Amino acid sequence: MKRTRTFIGVDVGAAIRGSATALQRELAKIATGVKWVTPENMHVTLLFLGEVDDRELHAVCKAVKAVAASEPPFSLRVSGVGAFPTPRRPKVLWGGVTDGAEPLQRLYTDLEEEMLELGCYRTEERGYTPHLTLGRINSPEDGFALATEIPKRMAWQGGRFAVEEVVVYCSEMDRDGPVYTVLGRAPLTGKARS
User: Fold this and answer.
1) Model confidence over 25-61: pLDDT tens digits?
2) Lower CB count within 10 Å: N or C terminus of the chain?
3) Whole-model pTM?
4) Catalytic option among 87, 111, 131, 146
5) 69 in a domain, yes or no?
């Protein structure tokens, strides 16, 4: 029985990728031991499913299509920089999602319900915060160096992107890091909310 590491997300487009990469380059001068997300892997995660039985992937993609059909396309804006667990003790550095957070939250809630029903997802303890992961911080020294930089980046503007689909990805580890492959695309075809 083969299992595939799977997650559901939305693309962020070339403009946001470019802004995020420029920001990463600036921050890399301050902190040298950060594992930066490569431009081609940048996305906003909706749900991380983990290892999914390959026989269930079709059902996952079908459920994602059904959820996406209820939400209209929307504009996503990335701005400001933050960190998990806290900006004072950063382990994961991210760009904030300002416009588009509500539709992402709705998609997350609806997808979570569907995936729990399929039995290929466990509810996460922490709530959902839409974000664009920029990098993972490996050492306390880098965390300390970046903690002083984060407040200076609150006004950072990452750009906008028109989100028109939800994507199901698989993630495979390579020696250079994860490689993401699209397993399915689900267009957002819902009626605009008045």
Assistant:
1) 999 999 988 999 999 999 999 999 999 999 999 999 9
2) C
3) 0.92
4) 131
5) yes
Is residue 193 situated within a structural domain?
A: no
131 is catalytic: yes
- Model pLDDT, residue 193: 65
Strands 165-174 and 177-187: antiparallel
Q: Any bridge partners for residue 135, and if so which?
A: 36, 93
Range of the domain at 152: 3-187
Instruction: Tell me how many domains the chain contains.
Output: 1
Instruction: Clarify whether 58 is annotated catalytic.
Output: no
Q: Report the 10 Å Cβ neighbour count for 142.
A: 19
Structure tokens at 152: 């200076």
Residue 192, domain member (yes or no): no
Tell me, rounded to whole angstroms, the distance of Cα 16 from its chain centroid.
13
Interacting residues of 177 by C-beta distance below 8 A, sequence separation 6+ = 35, 38, 41
Catalytic: which of 8, 10, 17, 43? 43
